[in-house]
Amino acid sequence: MFESLSERLGGVFDRLRGRGALTEADVRTAMREVRIALLEADVALPVARDFVEKATEQAIGHEVLRSVTPGQQVVKIVHDTLVEMLGPDTAELEIAVTPPAVIMLVGLQGSGKTTTTAKLSKLLKSQGKKVMMASLDVNRPAAQEQLAVLGTQTEVQTLPIVAGQQPVEIARRALNAAKLQGYDVLMLDTAGRLHVDQALMDEMKAVADIATPNEILLVVDSLTGQDAVNVASSFSEQVPLTGVILTRMDGDARGGAALSMRAVTGKPIKFAGMGEKLDQLEAFHPKRVAGRILGMGDVVSLVEKAAAAIQEEDAEKMAARLAKGQFDMNDLRGQLAQMRRMGGLGALAGMMPGMKKAQAAVDQVGGDKVLIRMDAMITSMTPKERAKPDLINAKRKIRIAKGSGTTVQEVNKLLKMHMEMQTAMKRLKKMGGLKGMLGMLGKGGPGGGMGGIGNALGGAGLGDMMGKLDTGGLPGLGGPGAPQLPPGFENLIKKK
Hints:
Helix content: 55-70%
CATH class of the largest domain: Mainly Alpha
Number of strands: 8
Shape: flat
């Protein structure tokens, strides 16, 4: 999501950064292009108009026109306006002090309410809450059975199904059961409805009156586009919405629904569904999303993904090996597995500042398929070959290539990458191991920070390559001081 909008805005800002000074006409021309980019991304017209007016009002001020780096000032103003439009802070769920807290999910048919109910219940359970789910959908065949199956998968209790009961009766029974059995949270999954169907809307309001929910969350499919605005308006007129959950944020929609929703409903976007799996629901962070749209990366999310994907015990073992300068094929395979758990090369590149074009390059050559092929080659090696790659001669390379369905050239690339990374680890040891690396992280300026580590570990890494491709010279976004990975990773995104 947001790729087309990000590319269009990136082009506008690249032209601004290339100018030594900006006139008011330059700023207004750029803002017109920003407006067109927003409209093409399916952002509602009133929202796009307000956004551009606010950004233009600030951008034509003396702060920009007299700035040493006016292009960067405009980018910052657009970023801040985007954050304001999405909501300044991450919105938390309102969980009642006196349990049970009732969370009611509403939305159109097919927006993903039932799956989202299970995802949110799983998330709350992981936070130590005792959760019960209840399906009020008596219209869709097997809807209640679907939630029961999801409850089994997430190990969350579901309200027993009683044939013939109507939604209001089910809500009353669920509330009584949650109180008697000491549940912290009661999740109510309502029936999907059309916003023109007043009978279903009245039923939804009756359920809300009975359950008096702490949260009424509107579930909206991000692929809805412009019509999402009409959906949000219709529901907000019927029930007091407290927030929005966007589903299919991992899709190829243009992102207009996400950008319009806050402005239309006046309610915060609280969660975003990032995939079909039951653990792929994330809190919505406006500043991080704005950073991704404008190509500034999302390092905080990257760190969080790393923390979730990397086991503490494995990290300690790896740290001990790196401190000794050791790095064999088993270590490389472990690193590749962690990258896949964190979302793959494309997702990681998209979260790193100045790496937008790296993400496109990775996607062009197959993204995660590259990691899968590398894993297949390592799997085709014997335990002795993995521990000592120097043993791999021409005959062994042919066997490994045949066993993994790859070519000898690809095996050579893998071995070369491993050799370069192993050399980098040895240099890291000479720098004083991990403590030495952390010391370099504290140094700023060209040659310091992450860029300095990249140079010390052996020159051109992925960050250096991106500095040549893009970024327009923004500090920290390519070039000197850019984020750098150990040498050899650039081979992952070269065309075979």
